[in-house]
Amino acid sequence: MKIRYFEHGDVEQWFDLLLQLWPDSSREDLEFALANIKRNPPTLAVFVATEEASLIGFIEVSTRDWADGCSTRNVGYIEGWFVRPETRRKGVGGRLVKAAEQWAITQGCREMGSDTEIENETSRASLTRYVEKSQLAVFGKRIAQ
Questions:
Q1: Are 49 and 62 in contact, with CB atoms under 8 Å apart?
Q2: By residue range, what is the domain housing residue 109?
Q3: pLDDT tens for residues 48-67?
Q4: Residue 124: helix, strand or coil by DSSP?
Q5: Distance between CA 122 and CA 101 in Å, rounded?
Q6: Looking at residue 67, what is its pLDDT?
Q7: 102 in a domain, yes or no?
Q8: Is the pLDDT of residue 69 over 70?
Q9: What is the DSSP string of 54-97?
Q10: How much is the pLDDT for 144?
């Protein structure tokens, strides 16, 4: 297994992984995500885990001015993280997080943040080395047609 930066040739396999992570996404959403990565290389990076010629996981990391639960500015942030179910519990996710953290350090970050839905037990269990800082209820209301 190898961890490396995302490359253009990874696009279709990466899209497959993204759709497993976010199944309600459209092809347009995925194309937008790819364009965003190309547009923001200093503040956004994607690392992939490969086994032979197959992508088995990825992590998308960014820098943010701030993040809930962090006390410093310029915080590394895990935006998306996925490992194929059949390759989980083999250290792939941990190695992806380590690559993201090392990248964030090179960007001047001293803290790393992430988030997930409260009911997402798999994601919450994967962040065992992180301290849960808070739980958030998000509200919305349509105010115009």
A1: no
A2: 2-126
A3: 999 999 999 999 999 999 88
A4: helix
A5: 20
A6: 86
A7: yes
A8: yes
A9: EEEEEEEEEEES--TT--SSSEEEEEEEEE-GGGTTSSHHHHHH
A10: 66
Output the six-digit token pair for 130.
């992180």
Cβ proximity of 49 and 1 under 8 Å: yes
Q: How close are the terminal C-alpha atoms of the chain, in Å?
A: 50
| Better-scored residue on pLDDT, 41 or 48 | 48
Hey, what are 82's tokens? 């996925």
Q: What is the CATH number of the domain that holds 109?
A: 3.40.630.30
Which pair of structure tokens corresponds to residue 122?
Answer: 């798999």
Residue 46: how many CB atoms within 10 A of its CB? Answer: 22
Distance CA 128, CA 125 (A): 6
CA distance 6 to 25: 20
Distance of CA 31 to the CA centre of its chain: 16
At 101, which amino acid appears?
E
- Per the domain annotation, does 133 fall within a domain? no
Domain-located, residue 49: yes
Question: Domain count of the chain?
Answer: 1
User: Has residue 134 got a pLDDT over 80?
Assistant: no
